[in-house]
Design goal:
By secondary structure, the chain is α/β, with parallel strands linked by helices. The protein folds into 2 domains: 213 residues, Isopropylmalate Dehydrogenase; 139 residues, 3-Layer(aba) Sandwich (Isopropylmalate Dehydrogenase). The chain has 12 helices and 12 strands. The longest helix has 19 residues. The radius of gyration is 21 Å and the shape is globular.
Length: 384
């Protein structure tokens, strides 16, 4: 496959303030649809006009996906060791020493787990050194990570550990609805043992700050779901709403956020989809993700709140069952790229501002003033 010759050096742009944001995309699991959705998304000229892009991955997998999709090359390849910045276009930072790509392999393997972690680590290093403006992640296979010896449940926990950030929250964007999660990759029956006031307060706090900072909403309206049916029905169906969720809402109001709830989730998401609220905090993974995927199954995306860098992601998995069949829809990747570019530009234009604390001191200070006892958030620092 013939590649275009790069017309610009890989040195920093001379006028950084006017340059389009430089986005690093980690390709994800080589056996999944990450290469396909990435190359399909960037094949759209409208998406490419938004920024400059470095794909951390396997050029062999990118070429194979492009051949299957009948996409002509629009990128150039460089060994990943020498890629720093680019002034325009798309470059694949190729990990060609990982000679393990096989399009017939469409299942979890330790080799693919190691490869996808290598891609992500390279993007993290580039973001930490401020060589890129944001990270966009294609899907990894959690089983492949486990087979490779990594104990992270997913991207969010890995990024929290990499940046030594304990307070991280997943927020999903689906059309006009935004949903942040209290618990992420955790068995539902285990939630009872870790469900605290501070844990509910965290996504309210991080979402409120993000809506102001990244989405330009000066006074965001945030609604909070109940945990139990009918939000507990005044204690008839569980007391977590009164013991945990309501005190967390009081804390958020004391900080200055406009927060309502707890509401029964079965009616709240309809109201949110109608635009009554700027954001919703869901108590657990499927409570928040079911409405997100019903509203925008193909186009929803995710961002991680609480990190010192910008990270967005697709809202789907590796889809091993359709790998290499040219059936993968790139709309979620397009949404993730758009959001990353918008956030990067907004960050560039924002005045300098102190970052949020990365521990639970803020929670404890507010809670102490209110006479509320709060446990420390769960530690996400689980290494390989």
């Amino acid at each position: 496959m013939n590649h275009p010759t790069p017309t610009n050096s890989d040195q920093p742009a001379t006028n950084v303030s006017q340059a389009r944001p430089l986005i690093g995309i980690s390709m994800g699991d080589p056996s999944g649809i990450g290469a396909e959705v990435t190359i399909k998304a960037l094949a759209d000229p409208e998406i490419r006009r938004l920024g400059r892009f470095i794909i951390y991955g396997l050029n062999e997998a990118i070429e194979y996906a492009a051949d299957q999709c009948e996409i002509n090359p629009f990128w150039f390849r460089l060994p990943h060791e020498i890629v720093t910045r680019i002034e325009s276009g798309v470059v694949v930072a190729d990990f060609d020493e990982l000679s393990m790509y096989n399009p017939a392999v469409n299942y979890a393997t330790a080799e693919c787990g190691t490869a996808s972690m290598r891609f992500l680590d390279a993007a993290i290093l580039a973001a930490r050194e401020r060589r890129i403006d944001a990270i966009v992640t294609a899907p990894i296979c959690k089983e492949s990570w486990a087979l490779a010896g990594y104990r992270y449940p997913g991207h969010t926990e890995k990024l929290g550990h990499a940046f030594k950030t304990r307070r991280v929250t997943m927020m999903f964007t689906a059309a006009r609805m935004r949903v942040a999660l209290v618990s992420i990759h955790e068995p539902l029956l285990d939630l009872r043992n870790s469900f605290t006031i501070g844990r509910v307060f965290q996504p309210i706090d991080l979402m409120g700050d993000a809506l102001r900072r990244w989405f330009g909403i000066d006074e965001p309206r945030i609604a909070v779901c109940g945990l139990n049916p009918h939000a507990g029905e005044n204690g008839l169906f569980g007391d977590e709403e009164k013991r945990i969720i309501e005190p967390a809402i009081v804390m958020a109001r004391e900080v200055g956020y406009c927060v309502e709830g707890p509401f029964p989730a079965d009616t709240l998401f309809w109201r949110a989809a109608q635009g009554h609220f700027d954001g919703v905090v869901a108590m657990y993974h499927d409570q928040g993700l079911i409405p997100v995927k019903l509203i925008a199954f193909e186009s929803a995306c995710q961002t991680t709140l609480g990190l010192p860098i910008i990270r967005t992601s697709v809202d789907h998995g590796t889809a091993f069952d359709i790998t290499g069949t040219n059936q993968a829809n790139p709309e979620s990747m397009k949404s993730a790229i758009r959001l990353a570019c918008e956030m990067a530009i907004r960050k560039r234009d924002l005045p300098a501002r102190e970052p949020l604390p990365i521990d639970d001191n803020r929670v404890r200070t507010v809670a102490g003033d209110l006479g509320i006892e709060v446990e420390a958030p769960a530690d996400t620092e689980k290494g390989p």
